[in-house]
Amino acid sequence: MSVTRSVGVEDEPVGLELASPRGRRPWHQPRSLAVRGLLWVVLVAFACLFLYPFVWLLASSLKPRGQVFDNALIPKTFVFHNYVEVWQRLPLLHWLFNSVSIAVIAAGLVAVSSSVVAFGFAYFRFPGRNLLFGLVLATMMLPTAVTLVPQYLIWKDLGLIGTWVPLFGSNLFGSAFYIFLLRQFFLGVPRELFEAARIDGAGYFGLFWRIAMPLAVPAFLIVFVFEFQASWNNLQGALIYLNGGSPDGFTVPLGIAYAMTKFSPTNGGHGDYQFVMVAALLVTLPMLAVFAFAQRYFIEGVATQGRKG
Amino acid sequence: MTAVATSAPAATAPPRRQRHNARETRAAYLFILPWIIGFLVFTVGSMVYSLVISFSNYNLATNTATPTGLSNYRGLLDDPKVLQSLKNTLVYALMAVPAEICFALLLASLLNRVTRGAGVFRTLYYLPKMTPSVATASMFLLLLNGNTGAVNSFLRFFHIPGPQWLVDPAWVKPSIVLMTLWGVSGTMVIFLAALKNVPRDLYEVAELDGAGPVRKFFSITVPMISGAIFFNVIVLTINALQVFDQAYLLFWRDQTNASPDSSLFYAVYLFQQAFRQFDFGFAAAMAWVLFVIVMLVTLVQVRVGNRFVYYEGEKSS
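C-alpha cells for the assembled complex are given below, as produced in the milestone run.
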C-alpha cells in the first residue's frame, strides 16, 4: 500500500508512533507541520466559501440603483442611504414585529407542551406507553404536505385564516422530535432524585416542575431555539395563512418574497433589487444574534439528532 | 446516549407481571394528553380528512366535498405536470443527497483533524444554516446569475464558461443543489459528533498493520459512523422529496418563469393546486401519492441500510 501511505500523514515509521508519548498530540491530529498547514489552508478556503455570500450580500446592499446585478464585489459608490430608504419602501418594522412575536409564541408553546408530554413518557410506566411512543416517532416521518390541506380547512372552519393562530396553534400539542429530544434528557435524570422527592411528599406535577424541569433547562433551550428558527424561516405557512392580507401583516419570509417580486427586474422593479439585499441582511441578523447567544446549544442539539438511529 | 441504550431493553421487556398503578396511569395520561389531542386532531384527523377530500371534489365556497371516486387520482395520471414535477423532484433528490453526504463528511473529517480553532471553523461553517431560506435565495439569485453572478466570475477566472444556472433547464437542479450544499452544516455537525465517538485504538491497530489514510477511512471510519450516515441519508431524502422554499423563491415566486418544465417540483405544484387553484381534492390526492412515495423510499432505505449499518450493541458472532 505504498501509494496510499505516501500521502504523508501516517507514513512515519511504526516504531516512532509507538515511541511518541501519548496525550501530547491528539490522536487524530496530523504530525507534520506541512500537513497541518495544508489542512488549515483548506479549512480557511472553505470558510471563505461559506462566508463569501454574506460579503456579497453586504456589498450588494450598498450598491446604487441599477448596479446591483453588476459583477463587482466592491460597489463603485457606497449608498448607505439604501438602509434608510428600505424602511420607507418596505414595512420592515411590521414584518420584524410579526415574526418575532410569532416565533416567540411558537417556540414557547412547543417547548412547554413538549416538555410536559416528554416527562409523561419518561417518568411513568403505564399501559400502552411503548405503542404510543412508537406513534410519536412515526409521526416524524409524515410529510407535511399530507396534512397541509386538511389543516388549512380546520383553521378555516375555525375562522382563523389571516390570523397568527394557524402559524403556532398546533404547537400547543407538542411536536414529535422535541418530545423525543426532551424525553432523552428526562431519562438521564437519576430516578433516586424523583423517589426522594416523592418521599418528601411531592406530587407528580411537583416532580416535573421542581425536579425534572430545572435539570432540563439546556434541552428546553435547544427546543426553544430550534423552533424559533423554524418559525422565523417558515415561508410556506405564511404564504398559506397570511398572504391574502395587507403587506403590514406579513412575516419576514413572506415579506422578503414579496419584495423579491416587487423589485425584480422582470417585474418593472428596474434593478431596485438592492432593497431586497438590505432587507435580507436585516432579517438574517436577528438569527445570527440568536445563534451567537445560543451557539453551543444549537450545535449540541443538532449533534444529538444523529444519535437517534 | 447511554440513556437510549439502557432504556430500550427495559422498555421492551414485557412488564406484563408488573401491575400498573392506577393513579400513576391516570397521571401519565394527563401528562401526555396534549400530544394525544394533537395526534388525534392534527395527524389522524387530518389524514382521514385528507383521504376523504382526495376522493371528492371540494367546493371552497360552500365548504362541501362531493364524492367523486377515483377521479382525482385518475386526473394525476392525465396531468403531465404531475409526472414532470415528480421526475424533477426525484432527480433533484438523487443529486442532492449524495452530494450533501459527501460534502458534509468531507468537512466533518477535516474539522475532526484540527484541535486548535476547530470551534471557530465549526461556527463559521454553521452560519449559512442560520440564514433564512428567503435570504439565501435572494442572495443566490444574484450569485448564480449567468452573466454577472459571482459563481460564473469565479469559473471565468479558470477560463471555464459557466452555465446560465437559473435559465438553462439542465442547470436548474444543480443550482438548487449548490444552494443546499451551502447550508450543509447541520449534516456536518451530526457527522462530527459521530467521528468523535470512533475509538482511537482501531486506528492504531490499523496503522500497525500498515493501513494508509484512505484505507483507514473506508475500513474503519465509514463502518464506524455508518449509523450516522444512514440517519442523514434518510432525513435528507425525506427533505429533498419535499423541497419547496428554494424552488418557489427562485422560479415560481412571480409567474414569469423561464424554465417551467425543469423547475417545477412536486411540493410547489401541490401548493399551487391547493392554494392558487383551490383544487383541494387534486392537491390531497397529490399529497397521498407523495406520502406513499416517501414511505416506500424510506422503507427501502431502512431495509438496505440495516444490512450495512454497524450497531455498537451487536458486537458478537
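Residues 54 and 285 of chain B are 5 Å apart (CA to CA). The first helix of chain B runs from residue 2 to 12. Further analysis is deferred to the final report.
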